[in-house]
Amino acid sequence: MIRDAHAVVWTRLSGIPVKMGELHVTESESRFVYELPFLQTGLPGLGLVLSPDIFAENTIRWLRTERFNFPPPIQSLIPPAGEHNFQRRLILNYLHTIGIQSGSEFENDWNILTFSGHGGIGHVDVFSSDDKARHWYAIPTMPQQDFLKKKSSLGFSLKNMLTWYEDETGYLLDFIGPTPSVNGAIPKLLLSIPRTGWNGQVGLPTRFGDTQSTDIILKLEKDTAYPGIVELEALGLDIHRQAGFATPRYWVTEFEGIHALAIERFDRDEQNIPVFQESLFSVLASGNRNIQNHYDASYDQLGRMFDNPRLTLIEDRKSAKKHLLKRLLLSFLTGNGDLHLENLSLQIRNGQTDFSPVYDPVPMRAYSIHNILSAMPFGHYGDYTAKQNRPRGFTQAVKAFNQSLGFDKNQLSALIDELLSITDNFAHQVNALKSLPQENRKNLIRIHDDIKHRLSML
Ligand SMILES: Nc1ncnc2c1ncn2[C@@H]1O[C@H](COP(=O)(O)OP(=O)(O)OP(=O)(O)O)[C@@H](O)[C@H]1O
Ligand SMILES: [Mg+2]
Questions:
Q1: Considering the entire predicted model, what is its pTM?
Q2: Tell me: the pLDDT tens digits for 13-67?
Q3: Could you give the 3-state DSSP secondary structure of residue 298?
Q4: Which of 26, 46, 76 corresponds to the end of one domain?
Q5: What is the C-alpha separation between 395 and 327, in angstroms, rounded?
Q6: Are residues 391 and 342 located together in one domain of the fold?
Q7: DSSP codes of every residue in 411-457
Q8: Is 124 among the domain residues?
Q9: Tally of domains within the chain
Q10: Ligand nearest to the CA of 358
Q11: Could you tell me how far CA 76 lies from the centroid of its own chain?
Q12: Which of 134, 200, 209, 319 is spaced 20 to 30 Å from 294 by Cα?
């Protein structure tokens, strides 16, 4: 048994804070209802599927499951319980310091959601009450501090922090205070820096009216597990930019021997106002209860989703499918293998829904534990088909996926030629990475050469 719980959802999508709706959680379900005045605003709501257009005045009744206690756009605000989730530990630690003890997994989730489920990635802000929301939105921006100086005056080592022991994450809290959460395997902090770019000065994420600063995600390199990952991510972003994808500004930096990547947030506009953003995981899981993990779909299924006559996600269906194909092919060529549903997001800008700029394009196959071709199936790769008595190979699967998207052979060849020429210099670029161990460089180049060879035979 749990007591019924209640929280409120607000958003600053229009530039000013507006209440979006109410969340009621019972033992078996989470119920969300849009505020009537919010429905008048015409703003997008929680998500593309759980939208005001579709649900209007009706209550969204979400049957609770182990994975999704809450509707996916709300669940996304909570770093999942897992032994090594840095963000989750950070927040639970903070809650401990303000006298909120750790409880059951659900109680922890609930506390994380109501205490830190605002100001994070995207446009959805959750609070325990409307008063708390108003109070929070009224807090002005804090002045930025010198990351390097402040840290040494505290006399702790950021390097220790990365060992993820509880008492060490406490030091970080002293320095930056509670920062909103962002999910994932790599230690990340949401911070702000001067709009002109990284210079070592950081502050908490921007607040209303602050246009001198820009919001960033600071990704820290855990060099025991992933040496060289910062340089690799920078290379991934560069290549995607050259291939014509929108990519955020970024700065590679180092302090106390820790490599870090500061990446400008694109879920905020030029005035630092939130932009509607939702991962494909949240979109899919909102409409299909079989989707429980961020790899529970095939790329072919995503293609069909963009073609669904009953649901228009992206107006220009053809360009959505082309984006998907190009991202997947480039992910193969750069040894990424990690293009799962949480690494693809949609945004609404000027009333138009489209893919967000690129994030997390790290050539992860450089690390043996991540050396898989693809996080999700495509074109029945590896499946036994009726005609053949051996599993379908890579090139066959690429062709089949291309066909399932409705493109012809010439379109595929042209795209492959373009991407081969963009990645022509890949081996050289990888060899130039100073912090990636030689073994990893060698493996990554071997993987790239193999894919390049196979794709050029198509
Ligand atoms: N520049 C950005 N602007 C806005 N949102 C971003 C940006 N970069 C990342 N995000 C969001 O933050 C989330 C986590 O970032 P990212 O995917 O880069 O790291 P990660 O999840 O730790 O990597 P992994 O997927 O290997 O665990 C993303 O899923 C995305 O929602
Ligand atoms: Mg990611």
A1: 0.93
A2: 999 999 999 999 999 999 999 999 999 999 999 999 999 999 999 999 999 999 9
A3: coil
A4: 76
A5: 16
A6: yes
A7: HHHHHHHHHHHHTTTHHHHHHT-SSS-HHHHHHHHHHHHHHHHHHHT
A8: no
A9: 3
A10: 1
A11: 10
A12: 319
Query: Does residue 450 lie within any of the structural domains?
Result: yes
CATH of the domain at 356: 1.10.1070.20
Does the structure show a pLDDT above 90 at 202?
A: no
Question: Among the atoms of ligand 1, which is closest to the Cα of residue 121?
Answer: 5
Rounded CA separation 89/175 (Å): 16
Question: Looking at the structure, do residues 69 and 84 belong to the same domain, yes or no?
Answer: no
Give, in order, the Cα–Cα distances in Å from 323 to each of 144, 246, 264, 332.
38, 11, 22, 14
Closest to 351 in 3D by CA, of 299, 312, 397 = 312
Q: What number of H helices and E strands is found in the chain?
A: 17, 14
Q: Whose CA is nearest to atom 21 of ligand 1?
A: 184
**Residue 88 corresponds to which tokens in the numbers above?**
């989750």
User: Ligand 1: distance of its center to the CA of 198 in Å?
Assistant: 19
Decide whether any atom of ligand 1 lies within 6 Å of the 217 Cβ: yes
Question: What is the whole-number distance in angstroms between the Cα of residue 343 and the centre of ligand 1?
Answer: 7
- The minimum-distance atom of ligand 1 relative to the CA of 248 is 1
Tokens describing residue 396:
């066959």
Q: Which of ligand 1's atoms lies nearest the C-alpha of 359? A: 8
For the stretch 316-325, contacts whose Cβ atoms lie closer than 8 Å and that sit 24 or more positions apart, written own/partner, are: 318/406, 320/354, 320/355, 321/405, 321/406, 321/407, 322/405, 322/407, 322/415, 323/355, 324/299, 324/405, 325/401, 325/402, 325/405, 325/407, 325/412, 325/415
Q: CA-CA distance, 226 to 271, in Å (whole number)? A: 35
- Residue 3, SS3 per DSSP: coil
Domain boundary (223, 256, 272) is at 272
Q: What is the mean pLDDT of residues 200-211?
A: 84
What angle is formed at CA 225 by the lines to CA 220 and CA 231, rounded to 5 degrees?
50
